[in-house]
Amino acid sequence: MSTTYLITGANRGIGLELSKNVLSAGDSLIALCRRPEAANALQKLAEESDGRAQIYAADVSDETMLDELAQQIDSTIDVLVCNAGVMSARGSLADPHNTAESVSTVLLTNIAGPFFTARAFLKNLKLSKQPRIAIISSYMGSQQHSGAGAYFYRASKAGVNNIMVTLANELKTQGIAVASYHPGWVQTDMGGSAADITSAVSAKGLIERFGELNLAKTGQFFNYDGSQLPL
Ligand SMILES: NC(=O)c1ccc[n+]([C@@H]2O[C@H](COP(=O)([O-])OP(=O)(O)OC[C@H]3O[C@@H](n4cnc5c(N)ncnc54)[C@H](OP(=O)(O)O)[C@@H]3O)[C@@H](O)[C@H]2O)c1
Fold it and tell me: What is the pLDDT of residues 85-99, one digit of tens each?
């Protein structure tokens, strides 16, 4: 049976590769990105999908835009993938890029974005027989991670892992499983060319993990290879 995925930040990087995997498996895709008119690779995928992909404009930090979009979409969503994210300042305490504006953007995008997206499309998830919410987080947000720097990116991923646990607690009684995932260190605009793995390797693993997500695994944090990670 076909599975319908909604993926945010679907126009490039891990989101684009997840979108490719969904369509090559014969499943359906609701692809969200900030500027569909500039999303050439995603448009090409949609054109080649025999109508299984729809692309919509959405900024995950804009709750009104997400709520209005959700009113236009009646279809069932089986897997809601909150992938869109920003990195912001990567440096130490002395990094001058940690301004109020950049801190606000990373926290709003990476923490509130998945919350606003899940809230807007909850009605679509409730139509599914096996509803799942998958949040792309990062091991950099784990309290066990030994690295320094990138203060607010780390805090944003720790924050969204906390949102994940709270969502899992609230939605368990409604049969909706929620988990967060570390995609690996991935060769994308954010990860850089020196990263460990390609977006193809990451996306293949993540799609397998989303397939395994159920209520027995809700509230947990996983690596793309399936190993469990500490929050
Ligand atoms: N790459 C890694 O090594 C790595 C490691 C751990 C976790 N992650 C996480 O994996 C996810 C994807 O990262 P990536 O490596 O694919 O990054 P990327 O190549 O920089 O792509 C980021 C995506 O998020 C979108 N986005 C950013 N802000 C948005 C907003 N407000 N509303 C909607 N879309 C927005 C971007 O859209 P635009 O094109 O419009 O900017 C783009 O599609 C992120 O959550 C990231 O934190 C990545």
Answer: 999 899 999 999 999
CA of 173 to the centre of ligand 1 (A): 31
Q: Is 188 in the pocket of ligand 1 (CB under 6 A)?
A: yes
* Dist. CA 118–CA 102, nearest whole Å: 24
Q: Is the beta carbon of 9 within 6 A of some atom in ligand 1?
A: yes
CA 83 to ligand 1 center in whole angstroms: 6
Q: Write the pLDDT tens digit of every residue in 161-191.
A: 999 999 999 999 999 999 999 999 999 999 9
**Which superfamily is assigned to 4-229 in CATH?**
NAD(P)-binding Rossmann-like Domain (3.40.50.720)
Burial 131-162 (b: 16+ CB within 10 A, else e): bbbbbbbbbbbbeebeeeebbbbbbbbbbbbe
State which amino acid sits at residue 36.
Answer: P
Domain ranges across the chain:
4-229
- Cα(11) to centroid(ligand 1), Å: 9
Give the SS3 label for residue 74: coil
* Helix, strand or coil, per DSSP, at residue 181: strand
